Amino acid sequence: MELEDDNRVYLASVRNVNWNYDMKAIAKANELTKGLESDSARIKKIYEYIVSNFKYDYDKMSTVQSTYLPDIENIYASGKGICYDFSSLFAAMLRSQGIPAKLVMGYTANVSGYHAWNEVYDSEKGEWIVIDTTYDAERKAAGRAYSMIKETAHYSRVSEY
Q1: Per-residue burial over 54-65, b = 16 or more CB atoms within 10 Å of its CB, e = otherwise
Q2: Domains of the chain
């Protein structure tokens, strides 16, 4: 089976990026991006919102089970989560805006252990960019510098959704 646009699969609601238009997080994405003309502006606005308003949940990290799946509504309501949650929320909010976004799992030099981040399709450049909202939220909370786009070479993919 061939898709007309291979990136369309990264707009869908799937098991670990499970969203719908009735969710509060998706309403927030609509509010944040209203009137913005470009995908890059929408990506940046949603990115800044997550990095500025969500905290890493260390308690959850120490108790999470291997079968865990993110729940967008719970993540949004609590304002905190683990890397899997950050990545799922970011992907859901972007997908709701018609921006292809992958939830990627694997390893990075920036974080010890298994990690989740996003690859987002930049339609203006015609390429996928690596964005790690979890890492950047932690850096921002610590008062350290951060930048949205990451070096692809610093991330090693095991799976993507």
Answers
A1: bebbeeeeeeee
A2: 6-160 (3.10.620.30)
